[in-house]
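Inverse folding, one chain.
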C-alpha cells in the first residue's frame, strides 16, 4: 500500500516537473520595442518577451531569457543551447529550411531611414543604387541591402550602431524593420533623420524552435491561440504599441 502511494506521489511529481519545464529562450536585446534592456530594472523587456512569457505560461512552461547576437540565434537552436527564439524574427523560406516557426504573431515590414539633408536625392528605394547602406548582421534588412545594385553595405551587430553610423555620416541609409525604426524616432524626437514613405515587403514575425521539437512548436501555437482568444494578446499589443490590432 505504502509503496503504491509513494509510486503515485513520485509519478505526480515527475509529471509536474515534466509539464512545468523551463524554456530557454534566446533573444537579441537591442531591438526596442520587441526586446531591449530596461536599464532601471536591469532586465530584458519588450513585446516579444511579454508574448513568449504569456504563451509559455498558457502552455505550462516558465521562461528563462538568454541574450545573444542575432546571427547566433539559429545556430544556438540547432545545437540545443536554447529551446526557442523570440527576437522579432521574420519568417523567411530560407530560415524555414533550418528551423520550425510558430504561426505568425506580428506583421511587420522593412523601411529605409535616411538623413533629412539627403531627402532631395534619396526619395525611394531605387535611389539607393550605389549608396552606402547600413543594416544589422543576419537580418532581412541586410539581405535586402545586399540585393541593391552597387551598394556599399556595412553590417553591424546591433541596429543601434547602424543608426549611429547614419547620423555620423558613415552610411546614407539604414534598412530595418518599420516598427523598430518608428519606435527609435518616437523615443528620440530626432528631426535630422526621416523614414521613406515606401514600405518594402510585408514580413511576419514568428517564434522559432528546432525542427526536432515539433511538440514545442505545437504547444507554442496553442498558447498563442489561447492568448489571442482570452484578450491577453490585445493587452500586450496595447501596452507596447498603444492601440489594439
Ligand atoms: N525582422 C528582422 C529579421 O528577422 C530583424 C530582426 C532583428 O534584428 N531582431 O531579420
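Residues assigned per position:
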Amino acid at each position: 500500500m505504502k509503496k503504491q502511494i509513494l509510486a503515485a506521489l513520485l509519478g505526480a511529481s515527475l509529471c509536474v516537473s515534466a509539464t512545468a519545464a523551463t524554456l530557454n529562450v534566446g533573444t537579441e536585446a537591442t531591438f526596442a520595442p520587441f526586446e531591449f534592456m530596461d536599464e532601471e530594472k536591469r532586465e530584458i523587456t519588450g513585446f516579444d518577451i511579454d508574448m513568449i512569457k504569456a504563451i509559455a505560461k498558457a502552455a505550462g512552461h516558465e521562461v528563462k531569457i538568454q541574450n545573444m547576437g542575432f546571427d547566433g540565434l539559429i545556430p544556438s537552436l540547432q545545437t540545443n543551447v536554447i529551446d526557442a527564439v523570440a527576437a522579432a524574427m521574420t519568417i523567411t523560406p530560407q530560415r524555414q529550411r533550418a528551423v520550425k516557426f510558430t504561426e505568425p504573431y506580428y506583421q511587420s515590414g522593412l523601411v529605409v531611414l535616411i538623413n533629412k539633408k539627403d531627402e532631395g536625392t534619396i526619395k525611394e528605394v531605387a535611389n539607393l543604387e550605389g549608396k552606402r547602406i547600413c543594416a544589422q548582421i543576419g537580418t532581412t534588412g541586410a539581405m535586402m541591402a545586399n540585393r541593391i545594385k552597387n551598394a556599399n553595405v556595412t553590417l553591424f551587430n546591433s541596429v543601434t550602431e547602424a543608426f549611429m553610423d547614419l547620423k555620423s555620416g558613415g552610411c546614407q541609409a539604414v534598412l530595418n524593420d518599420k516598427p523598430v525604426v518608428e519606435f527609435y524616432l518616437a523615443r528620440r524626437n530626432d528631426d535630422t533623420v526621416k523614414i521613406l514613405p515606401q514600405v518594402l515587403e510585408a514580413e511576419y514575425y514568428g517564434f522559432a524552435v528546432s525542427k526536432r521539437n515539433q511538440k514545442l512548436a505545437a504547444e507554442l501555437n496553442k498558447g498563442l491561440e489561447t492568448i489571442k482568444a482570452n484578450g491577453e494578446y490585445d493587452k500586450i499589443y496595447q501596452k507596447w504599441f498603444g492601440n489594439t490590432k
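Residues 28, 31, 70, 87-90, 136, 139-140, 177 surround glutamine (CB under 6 Å). The chain is about 40% helix and 25% strand.
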